[in-house]
Design a protein that fits this description.
Helix 4 (56-63) crosses helix 7 and helix 9 packs across helix 10 (161-167). It is built from 17 helices and 12 strands. Helix content is 46%, strand content 14%. The chain folds into 3 domains: 2-144, NusB-like (N-utilizing Substance Protein B Homolog, Chain A, Orthogonal Bundle), CATH 1.10.940.10; 175-228, Alpha-Beta Plaits, CATH 3.30.70; 233-427, 3-Layer(aba) Sandwich (Rossmann fold), CATH 3.40.50.150. With 428 residues, it is an alpha/beta fold. Strands 5, 6, 7, 8, 9, 10, 11 and 12 form an 8-stranded mixed β-sheet that branches. The longest helix is centred in the N-terminal third of the chain and has 22 residues, at 114-135. It has helices spanning 2-16, 21-34, 42-54, 56-63, 74-89, 94-107, 114-135, 139-143, 147-156, 161-167, 185-194, 236-240, 257-265, 277-290, 334-337, 340-358, 380-389; strands at 175-178, 199-201, 206-209, 226-228, 247-250, 269-274, 295-298, 313-319, 361-371, 393-396, 410-411, 420-427.
Length: 428
């Protein structure tokens, strides 16, 4: 355990300095693969990192009164955060957590701090009820989100903001999309049942597992029968309404889930565009596994002259860069790295991409605007301003069964769905 605590402490320190959690974990896995003598279980390291970031507001609120004076050593701060997460949220024996954290001090080259770590953690065990009660007086501690984020959601979603915040700290479910070209959802459910894997069928081609497990262990994954994709994201391809023979652009394609879903539903000439060449490799990998074909292009959606051949598209899907505020349970680091000023920057980028891509759409063509955000600046307000600028843009209604009228295209995060926003536009 102590090796996992030390490794997680290093990742957390870098992430809270502004680096990306996924990138830091990927770099760690690569280094561990090269170090054959390591014994740290990757699953535990990842759980410690995700767990601390999910509950950081509450953890820090309880840590502060346990310290006689401010900590100067950030490595010890991360170690204490990790141990407090374990004591509050895991089944690990409390004495083992404390003892391993004390031993981890030596691995961090901070042996003189053993007494401090031991005293803080044992004080927490004695005072936990008191500290938990005190947390209720602070919204940052209660929800474990930055105060600006809480305030923004309260103002924009007064009836829903508490549920949105709580959902953002849950463990994300593992959802699969059944490849309609290869197998029916019902037949795949039978394969899961035969493998002893509990699951339930939801809308469209979606299947949600009762318990997450390695995707490569899923029946038929390597053969292209299924892909991992959140249930909310699976709504994009059917809404786009691409039909055989059409020209289709997926303007922000990586890692390729929506690209593949469109191709699974129709025989189209699809261009998969993304500005990140490295992430486009994942698009190509997914297409190969699913036995699908697309024209994969590296380019900036806001600069079509650099990559567009001049022939209009019948359908355009734009899942644009955004705050990712609807998927914090999958990326808990963004709760602490985002700033309210970032919303202005994202909105400006979205504005430029919408205007550039709209010129590429054929008359009577459909344009699907998508974000994984719950902030109105990137969603409702962005689309309303776009329609004001473009008299030839008409908003198409979304199916009310999947999109309640009062939310106007917004999917709020819950136990099954990530937070997404959809607006379907037609060029008149």
């Amino acid at each position: 355990m102590r090796e996992a605590q030390v490794l997680a402490a290093g990742v957390l320190q870098r992430v809270l300095e502004g680096r990306n959690l996924d990138a830091e974990l990927a770099a760690l896995w690569q280094s561990l693969s090269a170090a054959a003598n390591t014994t740290a279980p990757r699953a535990l390291v990842q759980d410690l990192c995700y767990g601390v970031l999910r509950h950081l507001g509450a953890i820090d609120a309880m840590l502060a009164p346990l310290l006689a004076k401010p900590l100067r050593d950030e490595r010890l701060r991360q170690l204490l955060r990790i141990a407090l997460y374990q004591l509050r949220h895991t089944k690990a024996a409390p004495h083992a957590v404390v003892d391993q954290a004390v031993d981890a001090c030596a691995m961090l080259k901070a042996a003189p701090a053993k007494g401090l770590v031991n005293a803080v953690l044992r004080a927490f065990l004695r005072r936990q009820t008191e500290l938990e009660a005190a947390n209720q007086s602070s919204e940052v501690a209660r929800y474990s989100f930055a105060q600006w984020w809480i305030d923004q959601l309260r103002a924009q979603w007064p009836q829903h903001f508490g549920d949105i915040l709580r959902a953002g700290n849950q463990h994300a479910p593992l959802a699969l999309r059944v490849n309609a070209r290869r197998i029916t959802r019902e037949a795949y459910m039978q394969q899961l049942a035969a493998a002893g894997i509990g699951a339930r069928a939801l809308e469209g081609h979606a299947v949600v597992l009762d318990q997450a497990r390695p995707v490569h262990a899923m029946p038929g994954f390597a053969e292209g029968l299924v892909s991992v994709q959140d249930v909310s994201a699976q709504r994009a391809a059917p809404l786009l309404d691409a039909r055989d023979g059409m020209r289709v652009l997926d303007a922000c394609a990586a890692p390729g889930g929506k690209t593949a879903h469109v191709l699974e539903l129709a025989e189209v000439a699809l261009t998969a565009l993304d500005h990140d060449a490295a992430r486009l490799q994942r698009v190509q990998s997914n297409l190969r596994r699913l036995r699908l074909n697309a024209n994969v292009v590296c380019g900036d959606a806001a600069q079509p002259p650099a990559w567009w051949d001049g022939v209009p598209f019948d359908r355009i899907l734009a899942d644009v860069p955004c705050s990712a505020s609807g998927v914090t349970r999958r990326h808990p680091d963004i709760k602490w790295s985002r700033r309210v000023t970032d919303l202005v920057q994202f909105a400006a980028r979205q504005h430029a991409m919408l205007d550039a891509l709209w010129r590429l759409l054929a008359p009577d063509g459909k344009f699907l605007y998508v974000t994984c955000s719950v902030f109105r600046e990137e969603n409702h307000q962005q689309v309303a301003r776009f329609i004001e600028r473009h008299p030839d843009a008409e908003r198409e209604p979304l199916p009310t069964a999947a999109f309640p009228a009062d939310l106007a295209g917004q999917i709020l995060p819950d136990a099954v769905h990530d937070g997404f926003y959809y607006a379907l536009l037609r060029k008149v």
